[in-house]
Specification:
The protein is an alpha+beta fold. It has two domains: about 80 residues, no CATH class; about 100 residues, no CATH class. The chain contains four helices and 14 strands. Strand 3 and strand 4 form a beta hairpin. The model has no long low-confidence stretch (mean pLDDT about 75). It comes from Helicobacter pylori SouthAfrica20.
Length: about 210
Amino acid sequence: MQNGYYAAAGAMATQFNRLDLTSNNLANLNTNGFKRDDTITGDFLRLYQQYREQLPLEDQTKASAKYLNRNLNRVPILSEIYTDKSLGAFEETHNPLDFALTSPNLYFAIQTNEGIAYTRDGHFSVDKDGFLVTLNGFKVLSRSGLNEQGGIMLMPNAEIEVDQNGGITFRDNEAPIQAGALALVSFSEPKTLKNRAKPLCLSRRRHPSSL
């Protein structure tokens, strides 16, 4: 009888977590660059068997764990939350300051109050000081800006051209001026990215590779 209660309680807790993630995914359907989160559900028995030899357990502790395992072996638990990195649909906006990334492991580098962060939201604008910024007002960094915290400065209403490598040029009295190149970075271990306020990410361990 108790096993059934444990299984039902575990299933409810797991589904509540999935419901939270689904609600957040739906709330961000129209957020540029947003990536949905999903869950992987496991059971106590499988996870225990997978990791028991890696744990520093004494014999009596192992015996206790085996006893619990016999009683809880079918209790579902939330074993992992992951982010789906697959590409979404592209939309043509006819705005020269809107950018899209065609690789799932590329990010724009931006300067925030917490340091350098990364985003796939390429909907940018120019602030009152002439810097290329996100909708939240964070500076979009140039490649040199990864070390110097330098942004990309543009002239208001200037004609802008962007090459395939992210280099930005604008024209002043027909003379082309190189404004800089977008800092595009990738991660060898994308799982090290930690989601922050939508749709920003911070790197927890690894430094990204700049293109």
